[in-house]
Amino acid sequence: MTTLILTVAGADRPGLVAAVADAVDAHGGNWENSRLAELAGTFAGVIEVSVAADRVAELQAALRALTGLLTVTIHTGSDAGAHRDGSSISLSVLGNDRAGIVHEISGVLTSHALSITSMDTETRDAAMAGGRLFESTVTATVPASADLDALRTDLEKLAAEIQVDITLA
Fold first, then answer.
1. Which of 52, 60, 82, 166 could pair covalently with 159 via S-S, beta carbons 3.0-4.6 A apart?
2. Within this chain, do residues 150 and 89 fall inside the same structural domain, yes or no?
3. 72 near 6, Cβ under 8 Å?
């Protein structure tokens, strides 16, 4: 089996997921994993599909035929992520929204050689205080060589600097 990673985006409307699922099914593919969302009126997502090697080209053609309904970009998956050493950590971030929060947090994680495996972010109105709140949940792979105490110290320093709460688990 060949793994394909699809990125999809288009104006949100009913039937977008069904169109992709129909193409995958019609070509003997299997929908493995996905992250799909509507963001500011645009439907966007990342989908992992497996398909027999001899059917890859026809599935790719069917997916490209969705142009106009969705923009679909196709990448061939790799097994590199499946062989990562290390454990996982989760962190949550909550604070007043401002530009640069993701940049700052991802910079600290990168400086400690952590690899982000998932990140969910959202901004919303702060009901009682006014303004906007930023909230994020991050899962990252930690290499065996990482100094978790130093990571914790750097995250605490960052939290104080940008005035957010960061909880590491």
1. 166
2. yes
3. yes
Tokens 């590491």 belong to 168
pLDDT attached to residue 83: 45
CATH number at residue 109: 3.30.70.260
The domain total for the chain is: 2
Q: And the tokens for 79?
A: 């097994």
Look up tokens 């401002």; give the residue: 98
Cut 0.70: pTM above it: yes
Average pLDDT of the segment spanning 19-36: 96
Cα-Cα end-to-end distance for the chain? 36
How far apart CA 53 and CA 43 sit, in angstroms, is: 29
Q: Are 93 and 101 in contact (CB under 8 A)?
A: yes
In 17-107, beta strands by DSSP E: 30-39, 42-51, 71-76, 87-96
